[in-house]
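Known limitations

Files may contain more than one protein. Parsers should not assume a single record per file. Below, a two-record file is shown to illustrate correct handling: read the sequence, read the token line, then continue until end of file.
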Amino acid sequence: MVTKGYVSLPYELKDGRMKVSLLGSGGVIKRFLRMLGNANLRYALVSLTDAKFSSNSPLGRLTEKQQKVVETAFNLGYYDLPRRASSADVAKKLGIAEPTLVRHRRKAEHRLLEELLRQS
């Protein structure tokens, strides 16, 4: 199973050093840092925190369960084309029943779409 990670803007080049922010699961970030080490690139981990979404963010309007379901589905490839994970895969990863997952996911998707369409 492959999950995604992102280099988040802004990044900074200063005095021959590069400062970047990474967004992804702990496993993805560990693999990225291991890859840097394997390439003999030195790095220092300055901070590691969980992402928090502001109440103004569309994701901030979701319940914790809805956020977890949408983030896990995204990271597992549920929203990829072609899809790399099914609802059953996501439910198994979260340790919940598939109908429960589907209910949380659909409510979250509805809230996100409602928020985005309201801003248009």
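...continuing to the second record:
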Amino acid sequence: MLLLAVCAGCSANPLASAPPTIAAATPAVSPPLSRAPAGAVRPLAARAVAAVFDDATRQLAVLVANSVAVVGDPQQPPRVIALPGPASSLVGDGHGTVYLAGRGSYYVTDLSTGHTATVGVPRAQQVEFTAIARRADGKLVLGGADGAVYLLDAPDGGGTAAVASRNSIFARVDALVTQGNTTVVLDRGQTSVTTIGADGRVEQALRAGEGATSLAADPLGVVLATDTRGGQLLVYGVDPLMLRQAYPVRDAPYGLAGSRALAWVAQTGSNMVIGYDLSTGIPVEKVRYPTVQQPNSLAFDDTAGTLYVVSGNGGGVQVIDHAAGTP
């Protein structure tokens, strides 16, 4: 169902005031493990918030509140990079750098050296940034608990990034992903997805099930969403924004990852992860694996075909080689 199609800066926009919301959906509290997780499990005692695989360094970067745990050599424990402050989400450039959303700023971390720089956002010093994404042109997009989405230009020499555009029509920005230079915004309270074009203007918005929680960009050019409350995998095209597929997934689907072969969905209510083929008109289950407890975060290495399942309660990082079933 179409919710809105708005122009940034329209003073008559009825969504200028706080939009009506529902209680945001959350992952299920996973039960104790009943089966051994597939593949190998690397210890990571911290509660992971998010994870991304970096192609250049061949390492997994895991956000754990005030630090980044870098998981690489299986013979070595994860290397921990301390951050200047708490962070809520991260995105990588695939070339050895990750960007993390902080408070009034974002962090830029070099995974090889561990060096981290802080970049401030003008007139947003008190904003709790809750989501971050990187467009194909290299520009960063930040979303905040204030319900605004900030499109940023490159930082100046003084460590401050200029704001190219700011859209404040959301109750809260809970997740951001990009396809090309189009940004997709998830607002859990409105259970909606909204596109923002390359020029920074809001384009279309759609209802996202009964309680959407997570987003992931897929190499096929679509955006994936989990409707955790409604028990669905949702697949959206972004130009224009359109719901292409909706498929039932039981047991509180939450964690997501796209890959060239399959789309991956974690079931937090049963400690399982499922790989779906999206190439036909309906998602087709191809593989499923038992996971670590609380499989909240997923990441995929398309070169090696390795799936990473990261526990949200300290259960470690699960590594499943050749996860799509082809060696």
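Parsers that stop after the first record will miss the second one. For reference, the second record is described as follows. DSSP finds no helices and 29 strands in the chain.
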